[in-house]
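Possible regression after last week's pipeline update?

I re-ran a chain I had predicted before the update to compare outputs. Posting the input and the new output here so someone can diff against the archived version. Not blocking, just want to make sure nothing changed silently.
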Amino acid sequence: MRKALSLVFVFGLTFSLNAQNTSSSHILHRLKNLQSPIRVLYFAAHPDDENTRMIAWLANDIGAQTAYFSITRGDGGQNLIGTELGAQLGVLRTQELMQARALDGGQQFFSRAVDFGYSKNPEETFNQWDREQVMSDAVRVIRQFRPHLIITRFPPDRRAGHGHHTASAMVALEAFDLAADETKFPEHNLEPWQVSRVFWNHSAWWEPKIDSLAANDPSYFVVDVGTYLNELGLSCNELASYSRSQHKSQGFGVSVARGAQKEYLKLLKGESSEQGIFGELPQQWGQLNYKYVEEQLEAIIQGFNPSAPYLSVDGILSLYQDLRKEDNPELNHLKNSLAEIAADCLGLKLELLATEEYAVAGEVMKFQARAIQRSPLAVSIAHPTTWPRAMKPKPDMDLSQNQLLRTDLNIELGTDLQSQAYWLREPYTAMFKAEDAQIGKPENAPAYQVKVAVNVEGRTMYLMVPARYKFSDRVEGEIERPMMVVPELTVKPNTSKLFFLGDETKIITLDFRAFSPGEYKIVMDVEGWEITPPSFNYKFTEKDQTRPAYIEVRPKMGAAPAAMNISFSKIDEEGVGELSNLQNLVEIDYSHIDKRMILEDPGIRLIPLRLEIRGTKVAYVPGAGDKVPEGIMQMGYQVDILDETNFRDTDLSQYQAVIMGIRAYNTQAWLFNQNEQLRDYMMDGGNLIVQYNTLSRSFQASDFSPYSFDISRKRVTEEDAEVRFALPDHPVLNEPNKLGEGDFAHWVQERGLYFGTNWDQEEFMAPIAWHDQGEEDLLGGLLIAHYGKGSFMYTGISFFREIPAGVPGAYRLLANLISYQNGSW
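New output (post-update):
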């Protein structure tokens, strides 16, 4: 259902994403939007692909129930604001989409497809994804949401530029037919649904002369999405700008747009209409045989008093109760929205606040129920003790005007509750696994929530109240988060990979966090490795207590790479119970999203590695966020992290190499001021290694390189792409570690991206070439140039993925780059 827009004017316009706006003007805006029964489904591949201008216009000007169907959660992308990748990034980007929809008025859906990174064509995409499952998910969402229109962001051909993009449009067009065919996917147990039209949201991105093309082709429709919304004091494209800027992990913050804005829609399927994109569609409820809905909504709107919105509650709840008698899924959004609007008209706020942020399933948890309403009407709610379970009902509790009611509760939580994202509860590869009831949903329902009956002047409505946790920060003020259900015990290792260059003993630190006090038996086991101690007991006296353990690890003779298994059992009066695998609790917490958590396997891998290095110290300048420095420390280097405050005053000559993190020059503008210092460092014999940066209007590669080259969008997406040593005798392939084909096995997601191109042929050497299937060899993934006594290197090799994944060959290659000596070639 549509989430409310939050507007707070404090020295300009800012947004509070965790609070509803209940102003009279916003209530009236929502009521007007309910007059339209039109539904539109926007289709694309990733979070941030959607055109928020179209969504904001459809939802706020047309009043259409609008949703975005993103085939993936963006888990294969990059991250500009942190180190989360893979599943963690997917959860972060899901939340960014949820915040975007809260601002532009849309809803959100997903398929089960996993974003596996850049794909060059749809054939490659569908070789990874289960096409039948993706199609099933799309058809399911269409039959549930019942859109009249589908709008694709991309064309169904190679102009889309990314295999996932092309595939998303292909799925939309095929699903248009399949959703209406009752013989397809009968297991959904959903009525077939015929979408009226499918449009492609064309733009000047693909066709610079789009204006003239649209003017002379009747299959094109042009709409102005810059409408000003008087009730909100904002235009649709302003809302869209704020929505777009929620994709912070992808660096998609934008300036606020105002004024007329054309969007172009090309008809791909369905009958055209001279009346526009909504021609012949039901634009009033009376056209769907719900004349009473149309009439009552009109009466509510005409009688709405901004100074006393509570006067409209009787009419709103009268219509709400009439709709509850209807068994038509097309009315669900209307029913739910009316209940929310009635609550807003009352100034009603219901809260179920946990006294702690984390809870364990099956335990008795302390809560405080809070309720307040700010109208003069007679309002009451069911007594809180009836919320958790069916008990002998107690009399309703009256809510006096503007009087906060507080009630303390002890609630026994169900043993089946969990906060783990539903799509991460089972192992997956190219497709997530999910129960049928979850498929398509953006995320889980809250781990714990109650359905509360609210009585207003003899009429009853029902509201869902989730369990939340609040605390006050001295700087930020009140912060609200979901109450999260976690295991009794979790473990966080200080590293997920331990490399052994010989038979040395290493120590790994394990931080155990108990959410339920008591004594636990902890057991560790790795075949072929010595673990000391292999098991021990730990006692925790308080809830949410953390205790470290220091474990010695040593390879036995002939030890192979292995994963450390850590299991536990709580010790009770009957002794030690059955052992369960311990999980790592990962918290995804940024100020622009609602906090989420993930439970992951600790992923501790023990890896024997033949590796030699030169030098002892490396300097690292973080960029967009990666875990490469931790890997360099595993090689045996001391890694010093340099930033703007300490870079200038640091003697770089002490370092074997200075390494720039991914997208460092995209994110750290101050680095350009240090070019002279870096060139002096190279001139005196140092190695400067620049990991990939993306194309930018603000700089070119020559702005940080001593010699000219360009950054391209070229990449090798197949992680097992054949490698060719273009310069087989080059030291970087031979010293101090001689590399072979085996070093390029077991890579993950890709070989590299944003390769160099158009380089100075007299200065740069390109020792490595790769190519995806059916393509020519691609050089530029690694460029090396000598400068004075030292060297400059640009690499698009995806070390930021391979190093955290523990790929031995990537470690050996990076060690050679760091150890490189000018003069040896």
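Follow-up from reviewer: compared with the archived run. The first helix runs from residue 24 to 33. Marking as no regression found.
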